[in-house]
Amino acid sequence: MRFTIDKHEKYILFSLNEESLNSLVSPLLKSELILINAEGQRNIILDLTAVKNADSSGLSSLLVGQRLCKNADGVFIIAGLNKALSKLIALSQLDKVITIVPKIDEAIDLIFMEEIEKELRREI
Prior knowledge:
Number of domains: 1
Number of helices: 4
Number of strands: 7
Radius of gyration: 14 Å
Helix content: 40-55%
Order of helices and strands: EEEHEEHEHEH
CATH architecture: 2-Layer Sandwich
Largest sheet: 5 strands, mixed
Shape: globular
CATH superfamily: STAS domain
CATH topology: Transcription Regulator spoIIAA
């Protein structure tokens, strides 16, 4: 599986550099997401700009990322979906569970807003 990881203070940007998110890639993606989470990272942006299609196991790996971040009181965001992938995610109703934004910049802004809200809640 080809990917890049860009670590930041508040989040990790995980860019999947594969054309398909399928049964060959999905187990590896799940393992990487688990490792990232085990390192204490709770906010993950998954950049799927390079991904053209996915199957059910690929969609399953997205749910794993969502669950890991949610359990760690963090945020899992998907960015960079093409129309076909966006339609597949909508058909499977994952868009109701997973935060999806068009661009990485928006995902970063969203994470910082979430972190500010959490800080404010702690102060109350």
